[in-house]
Amino acid sequence: MGTENTPVEGEFYLLRPDVRGGGRGHGVVLENENELPLPEHLSEPPSAGGIGSMNEIPRLRYDSRIGEMPDDLQAGFKGYWLVSEALKSAMQTMDADGFSFMKCEFRLEDGSEGAPHYLCEVVRVLDAIDEDASSVKILTDDYPNGKYYSIGGGAKFAFRKSAIGTAHVFRTPYTSNAFCDRAMRDFLIESGFGRHPNARGVRLTDASDI
């Protein structure tokens, strides 16, 4: 007989921008947002969108009247993440095939060039959540893949390791969130990301008890 699968603490984590800090938020404007496609996970079919479908360089402009300089991981860019050079390097070190990046043109208020920043998306999609062993609200109305796992109100995810293999980061067909394994979580923290009290915009939440 096989061992029953259950959500296991410390195995997998939600990887997402940390928006809990409040304040004014970031002051970066994506000037050519209307000319850029949606990320793959928001496009139908996915191949119609994503960084690989971009025909022009994303143009960013900083405006201090709107907010602060961006964190190393920042949301709010047409569904993409905005990441710093340091975070991009850490992500690529752990799982180069799991992410796609596009370098941006980033101008500061005086017209000078800002530090390198990239639009980023998680491009690996794995049907890795064990629905029967998880505790999650399942929505079924008008979703492209037929259903959606909502973490609103909490969730406890169990994963099918055979579907994940050696991958460190992935999305699933039925969630909008990205997940990473313990190895990537530990590497990010060792690299200075996701660590209290200065998380640098990175939030890592145990997927066994959201």
Can you walk me through this structure?
This protein is of the alpha+beta class and 210 residues long. 11% of the residues lie in helices and 26% in strands. A hairpin with a 2-residue loop joins strand 4 (73-77) and strand 5. The mean pLDDT is 94.
Helix/strand class: alpha+beta
Instruction: Give the low-confidence spans.
Output: none
Distance between the termini: 30 Å
Number of strands: 13
| Envelope shape | globular
Sketch the major β-sheet: 4 strands, antiparallel
β-sheet strand percentage: 25-35%
Spell the H/E element sequence. Answer: EEEEEHEEEEEHEEHE
What's this entry about, in short?
With 210 residues, the chain is an alpha+beta fold. Helices cover 11% and strands 26% of the residues.
